[in-house]
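Please describe what follows:
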Amino acid sequence: MENPAMLRHVSEPVTTETAANGKHRKTPGARPGLWAAALAVAIAALVFLVWATITISGSPASPLVAERVLSVPVREAQAASSYDVNREFVGKVEADRQSALGFELNGKLVSIAVDEGHQVLKGDVIAQLDTAKLVRQREVVEARLASATALLDELGEGPRREVIEAARAEVARLQAQSALAQRNATRAKRLIARNAISQEELDAEVLNEAAARAALRAQQARLDELEAGTRVEQIAAQRAIVRQTEAELRSIDVDLERSRLDAPFDGTIGRRHVDEGVVIAAGAPVVELVETGRLRVRMGLTSRAAEALQENHSASVTIDGVAHQARVVAKRPDRDGTTRTVTVLLELPPDAKDVRVGDLATLRVERTVDTAGFWLPTSALTEGARGLWACYVAVPLGQGDTTSATHELDRRPLEMLHSDTERVFVQGALDPEALVVTHGLQRLVPKQRVQIAREAR
């Protein structure tokens, strides 16, 4: 049998030390095995402690579990019989009147009196066409009108006395001439019977007699007409000529007016399309005129939102962060074919000075929905099954529970009807006294026992 002392001496490692006298001495070294064993024991104890914690979970006598009960914030569900829906609609500010002004005639543009941004009043001259040709035409028609008017005046007054006397004298002369021609014709007939003259001479005398009689009859008729005065038909015809000439003159005056472009209302020049010297067609835009005195907002609303607004009542619209009390002017009876909305027109007050055409305006319409439900904080909701939402309700534990837990969590499905910034309106399996967990839902599971901390509403 081996000596134990020798075995210990062999198993123990030795180190060499140098003495003060210079000689070496062997000493026992460190023992790493003991340290490894101690570390293993500590790890085993820690594992046992964790196992014991999990094993005794739920034991009413475990003080460890009592210390780890979670505290959750709760709030009573707020019952309500209705909720208000606030919807915002965006519209565009426009002028009450905005027109692209142009001429009704073709012509050469000779002047433009305004530029973009200029203020104009109703009746101010904006532009002018060349009217030289129209002026010449007007002078010609004026001369014709003067001539026709003078003739009408003459017809209305009747023939002058001197004209009648001259006509009578002419009748007397023709009577004498006719009598002479008749005597010559009679003499020629007697002479032809005696063969004193030729047949040609007789025919000439007979023809002269007939011509003299015809001239006498014509002059006598003219004298009778002068003595009877002007006929009514002649006066009416001349009056018609005068009216026709006056109408031609008025037509030229209208064209002269249409050659001048005037402002139809007070406003501001928005855009200038052409410059002087351009030959423009009828209807081509020259400038755009925007009425600045009256502004309105054109907005498309849903049917229910439009029903909430009444005509001639005020509504608050916000433009660039400033609220304005606008008046509901009109609601169109049809729907917009693209947006399927109802167009509403709102007139802005005159003191809306900083508002410009094209600004965006926001209208908030509030509508009350009558239905029962509960208001909950937004943070109290978690995703549920089949598109629904859910919340956790803290249900009080019975008297037999001896742990520090006071409530047990119950998961309730909910339907969300409306949401605000920080709260939601829901319907579901809740009652007015239900304690709903408001925060920290990611740490919770159904049937979990917790402590509660009530929050103020």
User: Anything to note?
Assistant: The helical segments are 4-11, 32-55, 63-67, 132-157, 161-193, 199-228, 232-258, 303-308. The radius of gyration is 60 Å. The first strand starts at residue 14 and ends at 18.
